[in-house]
Amino acid sequence: MIEAYRDFWNNILNFSGTANRPQYWWPIIINYILGGLIIALLQTTLGHPLNDIYSWQDLSVNSIVQVVAIIVWLGTLSLRIRRLHDSDHSGWWVLIDIIPILGTIWFFILMILPSRPNRWEM
């Protein structure tokens, strides 16, 4: 679990290669839990939602949260593409998630497929 999360951060800009199921699912689960806890802690500390900006401090906290969110989104995008490579699919399949309901279901199915020998393995 810890190794998979470390690999997530070490390969944040690696859009080639592969990521097996544990290397995909552990960082996804950990990021959701950590994100929820950090946002709840910040909102409790500030006393209001993060999007409500009443002072310069609120603006700086909101800006830091946005930068962290972009970094985690980029890492998750590269992880999704590596997971698709591991099941022998092109990284462009990540765009199927744009289709409202069916695309999300199909993308989830692609993420739970077993690993297959493929052209992206090093």
UniProtKB/TrEMBL annotation:
The chain crosses the membrane at residues 24-47, 59-79, 91-113. InterPro entries: DUF805. The keyword Transmembrane helix applies. Keywords: Membrane, Transmembrane, Transmembrane helix. It comes from the Bacteria. GO terms for cellular component: plasma membrane. The keyword Hydrolase does not apply. PANTHER family: INNER MEMBRANE PROTEIN YHAH-RELATED, INNER MEMBRANE PROTEIN-RELATED-RELATED. This is DUF805 domain-containing protein. It comes from Levilactobacillus bambusae.
